[in-house]
Each structure stands twice: as structure tokens, then as C-alpha cells.
Amino acid sequence: MTGHHSKVAKVPAATALIRARGLTKRFGSFTAVDGIDFELRRGEAFGFLGPNGAGKSSTMRMIGCVSPPSEGELTILGLDPVADGPAIRARLGVVPQEDTLDVELTVRENLLIYGRYFGLPRAVIRERSARLLDFVQLADRQDDKVEPLSGGMKRRLTIARSLINEPEILLLDEPTTGLDPQARHVVWDRLFRLKQQGVTLVLTTHYMDEAEQLCDRLVVMDAGKIAAGGSPRELIDEYSTPEVLELRFDPAEHETAAEKLAGVPAQRQEVLADRVLLYVRDGDAALAAVRALGLEPLTSLVRRSTMEDVFLRLTGRRLED
Amino acid sequence: MASSALPAPASSAQPAGSAPPAPAGRRAFAVRQLRFWLTDYRRTWRGSIYSSVLNPLLYLGAMGLGLGTLVDRHGRTGLGGVGYLAFLAPGLLAAAAMQTGVGECTYPVFGSVKWNKTYQAAVSSPLRPSDVFHGHLLFVTLRLTMNSALFMAVAAAFGALRSPWVIAALPVAVLTGLAFAAPIEAWSVTRQKDTSFAVIFRFGLIPLFLFSGTFFPITQLPAWIRPVAYLTPLWHGVALCRALSLGNADLGGALVHVGYLAAVVAAGIAVGDRTYRRRLYV
Known about the structure:
A: alpha/beta, Rossmann fold, Alpha-Beta Plaits, 6-stranded mixed beta sheet, 11 helices, 13 strands, B: mainly alpha, 0% strand
């Protein structure tokens, strides 16, 4: 990864909402975030994509001004997170990885308490709460306790809560982790609408589909470092091929088949535990070439490249496991 | 109001040039956290009032009247010439404040940082860890004031209070409770498991409750152990509350007791500012 700095489009310092240079976070002898650089523009949706333990949450906590950087520069809204934490946090919305709702209180009381933390008058909170609960489709549960709500509802409430101060930047740490597919889609839909509204989103995820759907620009993180950055399209163009041919063989033939596949003209080949991936320009042509070698896969699938392929290429490992 | 209900983005909601509201001062931030605890308390206040009244009723009834009748038969010189009920009531007032202070600063604090994580939610707003800490101490101060006032009302009904000076025992009892609350809260926030709290109750509170002069004068203790009692905040609280209730307090002694208790509170706040920061800013 030569000169990853150049891969992240430069933003003039004056217009950058968040700017990090050599940002580092250590916990004792463990380096969670290892000298990363990034810049964020107003109105964009920016993602940190990487597996668990890549340093995404530590980065988010530093941006959220609840974790002082060990080294490097970090500027948020032109301010220093260590010195101006309260002033910055007044303009941020935070959706933490783990829900921090008061489950003993009602949905509306949670918004009230949180709005009061920002010093908002009751009347303003009441008006915004009604609007936000409508937005996250929880208006009918507003007087219910939080405890019995489903995971997806709690997440949506957390999102509503994070918007109570009309933040300039919304930080979302793994917004849909632990949700079932349907609940994830509801959350994505709401986040997409926020993005359309012009809210600047910063999110971490280890779901490639989440990154592709929501992020205008993202950086791939691995072991505390940024491996690459750009728009999902740019990353796929740069680190993968237009198409991928996925082949599944009889487990007994898996190894030998993988060796024989070296004869097929592919840009790259990845042998996973259960499948072989061939990175090619034309998947159907490649499949014909496989068959021409006398190999008959149990199943074959031609698909477009995704962020998962980019991640595999950059780190040699899979994203979701 | 489907699509019009969308939250307006900050860029359009705030006209260019309008600065966000300036962050409020330290005290205002702590008050915001106090509001959280008051909202939370709305669910449980009824039950807490019952126990605040029941506790003195039971203790003053059983120990003050029941046991006190036996004690008084042996003459009153050992207690400084007053009946056992009058001796006991102000001591229990201070001891009850200690229990309230410790109770409010163990599980509620641990739950906020570990179970519900409402402390983590608070510091993602403009509040700082020290605001979260001070806000909770303000709430504990209110709870101590309530409980101590109710205790004194019950004690007065028992005829256990002797001097009008006893009104000054209310702030002293609150201060005694805070002398436990502040340092213990500073420690509670550092805990990773809730098992340590049982140790505090068993080996800290119960011996203090029994041997700090609440039930008998500490002159009854062996001479070598008395200095230990003088070091505990509870003894100072008990001694001053008792002197005020019996109307025999002297200014010098009162200043020493109040000074000692205030110093413990100040030390607890200084330590807690650090431990809260360390736990919530990681």
C-alpha cells in the first residue's frame, strides 16, 4: 500500500469538518489506532470499514471527544477535542455501538433527559421529540418503557436521541450490528434519508453492503491502519475486477481443482475454505474456460465485485466472519 | 406529517453565522445531570419515602424505647445524664445519613456506568465526567436532606429531640452522608464487578454503624481502639448531631467536626473528578 495518503482525496483544511493527521490511540502496549490520516467534508457520508478490532470504534470515540488521542492531530469543527470537548459535543450526534438508553424510562423521557443535557428548553424538546419519533417510526411507542422494545426499535430510538440537538455531524458506530435483516433495512432507510437531508454521517461498519449503500467515501481499516480509501466504486475499480466467478467443488476435489484453475486466465485467484474465487473481466467467459479444462464445479456464480473483494485483496482476510 | 416530519439538517436549521449556543458553566452542567436523577427518581420516590419513615420508626421503637427502658434503669450517668432515647436518636440520624449516602453511591453509580451505561450517554453530550459526578452528588445531597428531615420528624414525634439547636443537626447529618458518598462514589465508578459492594457493606458499614458511638459512648471501647473511631467520619457526625440535639455543643468542637467532615467530602470530590474522568474518557 504505497502512499495511502494520496488515495484519500485531499480536502482544503478550511472546509474539512474533521481532520486527522497521524492519529494514534494506545491502550498500554496495545496500539488500537496506528497513525491514521483522514479528512471529512460537510454533507458527505464517510465510513470506516473493517473487521472487529481494526480500530474503528477507538477512532469514533476520539472523534466523539470521549477518548483523548495518544498522539497525532485531530481537529473537529475547527476545534481541539481535548480542550473543547463540550463545545464540540454540543454539535455532534452520537449513536454508540452499544445502546446507552435508560431502559427504565419511557421512550419520550429518554429524549427529554438527553435534550436537557444539551440545555434545550422543554418545549423545544417536546416539539423535536414528536418529529423525531415520527421519523424513526416510534410515535406509537412514545409512552412505553424502553426495556421491552426490540433491538431494532432501541437502535432507532438511539438514532432519534442523537438528533435531538440537530447535530452538524452524526457519528454512528456499527449502527446495525446485531439487528435482523429487516430491522437493518429500516435503519438504513432512515440513515439514507438523513443523508439526503444533508446531515454529515460518519459511520463504522463491518458490513460491506452497509458501506456500499450508505458511504460516499470510505477508508478500509485493518489492524489500526488505513489500508486504502476512496468511494466504493473507486475502491472496487482499483482493487478488484469488474466480475467475480465463484466456484464450489466437491470437497474431495477442492484442492486439486484450485490448482488446475491456474490455467484459467484470471487477474487473481482466491482459494477460500469452501469456494474458489476468480477475479476476471468477463465471468461467463471464465466459466467457459473452466469447463474447457474439464473441471465441473458443483455450483458456479458470476457476480459483480463488492467491498468484500476489496477487503480480501487488501488484507488477505474476509470481512465478515 | 410524513416527509415534513424529517429533522431539518443542521446546515439549513441554523442560518449561516449563527453560532451554536455557548457551553454553559460548570454548575449548570452538573444541574443537567441532577435533572436526570430527578426524572429517574420519579419512578421510585414513593417507596423511598416509606423506608425513610419506617427505618427511624423501627430503630427508635425497638432500640430507643424497648432497649432504652432497660438501659435507663441502670442510671443515666454513663450517657451524660440523658435518657437512652435522647442519646440514641441523634446518633442514629447521623448513621442513617451514612447508610443513605453509601446506598446512593454504590449500585446506582455502578449501574449507570456498567449496566445501563447512562453515564456514557451523558458524556457524549456537552457534559464532562466531573459534571456527571457533581450532578449525582447534588442528587445525593437532596436525598440526604429529605431522609434526614423525615428522620428528625419521626424522632421529634418520639420526643427524642431535646434542644432547638437540633435544627442545625440537619445540615450536619447531610454533611456526614456526603463524607461517605463522595469518596465511595469516587471508588464505585472504578469497579468492574458489583461484588466489591457487599464487602463495603459487611466490613465497612456494619462495624462503623455499631462502633462509632451511635449506640453507646465510645468511651466504652478499649482505649487503644478509640483513635480509630475518631478517624471515622461517622463518629464526628454522631458526636456533633448528639451535642446539637442535647443542646450542649460548643463552637470549637463543632468547627473541628464540621472541618473534618468537609475535608473528607473535598478529598472525595478531588479523587472522584479523576476516577470519573479515567472511567468515562478512555
